[in-house]
Amino acid sequence: MPHARFRALDAEQQAVFIDAAFAEFSAHGLVGSSLNRIIRDAGLSKGSLYYYFDDKQDLYGEVLRVHLDRLLDGHRLEISAEQDAEVFWNAVERHATVMMTRLESSPELLSLFGDALGSAAARRDAEHVASPWWGRVIETGQAAGAVRADLPTDLLVSMAMGMTLAMDTWLLTHTSADTDLAITLPRLMRMLRGALAPDPAEGQPAQRLQ
How far apart are CA 33 and CA 26, in angstroms? Predict the structure, then answer.
């Protein structure tokens, strides 16, 4: 995590770090990237970089967090508790389609996220961003009767993130020429829905298990 003084910078100053680092990490990955090039391209001194970040891994995690957060919230998941299960899952599928389409249209983003899959620390950074987002999705789905409510929310979030990590890993390592997203993505979403849907044998519990 960046130092608190980085958060105190205005958006334009933060972007100087993030944009230069994004260009470097997406081009060379974490291992092959150079802090010296990032510092040069951002017009900064090495001392100023270490004033805000512990090291290259710390900066990499922040770049990943910023771009994953933009990807998740760049197209709002428009769902509400008043909608039924079918509407809910259709909205989830549309959101997934938008995110994958945005990734496919940006070689830089594809490169960054593909590289992050090989780093345990980077995956933890990604989970830190994705976990609250998935928590909101799960709770909205439960209110709409689309997601089972007989298991703790944090367990369902972990299940959803584990499944989508496997799906994302597969999708990111296969080119669009290998995969017809219009066919594959709905199949993957049906798998996710099957794992999270209420158990028909028990019905929808009135309260979640704490």
Answer: 9
Cα 17 versus chain centre, distance: 21
Instruction: For the chain, 210 residues long, give each residue's pLDDT as a single digit of tens.
Output: 888 999 999 999 899 989 999 999 999 999 999 999 999 998 888 888 889 999 999 999 999 999 988 887 755 566 665 678 898 999 899 888 888 888 888 899 989 988 888 888 888 888 888 898 899 899 989 988 999 999 999 999 999 999 999 998 888 887 666 678 888 999 999 999 999 999 887 655 434 433
Pull the structure tokens for residue 78: 């428009």
DSSP letters for 18-65:
HHHHHHHHHHHHHHH--HHHHHHHHT--HHHHHHH-SSHHHHHHHHHH
What residue has token string 């709002």?
76
Structure tokens at 156: 């369902």
89: its two tokens: 């899952």
What is residue 152's DSSP assignment?
-
Model's pTM, two decimal places?
0.79
Q: Report yes or no: 187 and 179 within 8 Å, Cβ to Cβ.
A: no
CB atoms within 10 A of CB 78: 10
